[in-house]
Specification:
6 helices, Four Helix Bundle (Hemerythrin (Met), subunit A), mainly alpha, about 55% helix
Length: about 160
């Protein structure tokens, strides 16, 4: 599972898990522009290549990653005793029918999701932790880094989505 770091640097996307909080927040803040550049150069972002998701599906996944990340950061900030839950990205993609959603709208929604996430990340207290059922106790920095990794990793997926395997 990519959400859990198993080495200091992600072997697939190259993200250094030790990046500073502000660097991680900055990486997420840049995702709307990076995703726009990637999506607009792909002739048909909704087209599947091989067994991977399409670029458009990865785009909508980024939206959900940031929305759920915002909820997690807000839970950490306002109701940490509640804890945060696991979610199934494939079940959510199916329920939301990612393959039918507009990449144009996805880019618009990604911008607002990233802004909300950046605001929540900047305000999240460093000294409070929240419980995750699979990964144990997490602080703001761990949640921020994990979301930054997802963004970085899935931008790579978008950039290679139109490349046949």
């Amino acid at each position: 599972m990519r959400w859990q770091p198993d080495s200091p640097v992600c072997a697939e996307c190259g993200l250094d898990w030790q990046l500073a909080r502000q660097e991680a927040i900055g990486l997420v803040a840049q995702v709307p522009d990076a995703a726009t550049a990637a999506i607009t150069r792909i002739p048909d972002p909704a087209q599947h290549t091989g067994d991977r998701w399409s670029a458009s599906m990865y785009l909508w996944h980024l939206v959900d990653v940031l929305r759920i990340g915002t909820e997690r950061l807000l839970t950490l900030t306002h109701d940490p005793r509640r804890g945060i839950i696991c979610w199934d990205e494939n079940a959510l993609a199916e329920a939301r029918r990612y393959q039918q959603l507009s990449p144009v709208v996805g880019l618009i929604v990604l911008r607002s999701a990233a802004q909300a996430w950046v605001t929540a990340a900047a305000a999240a207290p460093a000294d409070i932790q929240v419980r995750h059922p699979q990964f144990g106790t997490l602080g703001a920095l761990e949640i921020i880094r994990r979301n930054a990794h997802e963004v970085h990793h899935h931008l790579m997926d978008i950039n290679r989505a139109d490349t046949p395997r």
